[in-house]
Amino acid sequence: MQTTTPTTGEASFTDAARTAAIDSNDLQHLLRLGTATVYEAQGQRGSIASEIRPIDPGMKLVGTALTVDTSPADNLMFHQAILMAKPGDILVVDAKGFTNAGPWGDILTLAAQRAGIAGLVIDGSIRDSEAIIEAGFPVFARGISIRGTTKVDPGRIGSPINLAGTQVETGDVIIGDRDGLVLVKANEVPATLASAEAREAKEEDYRRQIAEGVSTVELLGLLPTLERYGW
């Protein structure tokens, strides 16, 4: 669903919101644990629409969001956001789900890498996908389109956005892998990491028991439910 497009340019964030003390080792650990584990660890919260996928299955990303609210088929705000981004930021772009033009390509990818940007998440399309994949720049997008865009429309950078149904604020942690995307609030990273580690340890024990011959029905206590249905 398209939302209202800004009619004037606007930056709306504070440096404090972007420099919250997040241990980079914690971020990398969350990435290694995987998006599905992180999602479950925070009570099945934070998932981002599964239609927004990595343009190459092996792509992964983790970092802090710098939000961009832009008109469909226009990329003026992308250029400005690259100037405003700090190393480790992920550009998270509400392009209104429009997939019939690609506002991001190889030139913006090169500029983003030069700025130390950690990746792009866009509810919209990109183009020059082969060059982006070869550059090793992580991109998660709704689609791919060869059509170009204008560079004339205003927008917002740093304001809260609705990314395909998920509220994203600048400074939120974004994690992406081939399973999808998950958001973690910056102040919840330590607790989420602890919960994710505990879940991973539990699942590792499941793997061990399955290897020893224990059934998943036994592990998960499913027998009473199955018996209720006559199994």
Describe the protein.
The protein is an alpha/beta fold and 231 residues long. The chain has a single domain, classed as 3-Layer(bba) Sandwich (Glucose Oxidase, domain 1). The protein has nine helices and twelve strands. The chain has helices at 15-18, 24-33, 35-41, 76-84, 106-114, 129-135, 189-211, 216-219, 223-228, and strands at residues 10-11, 47-48, 53-54, 61-69, 89-98, 119-126, 139-144, 156-157, 161-163, 166-168, 173-177, 180-184. The strands form two sheets. Strands 1, 2, 3, 4, 5, 6, 7, 8, 11 and 12 form a ten-stranded mixed β-sheet that branches. Helix 2 packs parallel to helix 7 (189-211) and helix 3 crosses helix 7. It is elongated, with a radius of gyration of 20 Å.
Secondary-structure topology with pairs:
Layout: E1 10-11, H1 15-18, H2 24-33, H3 35-41, E2 47-48, E3 53-54, E4 61-69, H4 76-84, E5 89-98, H5 106-114, E6 119-126, H6 129-135, E7 139-144, E8 156-157, E9 161-163, E10 166-168, E11 173-177, E12 180-184, H7 189-211, H8 216-219, H9 223-228
Parallel strand pairs: 1-8, 4-5, 5-6, 6-7
Antiparallel strand pairs: 2-12, 3-7, 4-8, 4-11, 9-10, 11-12
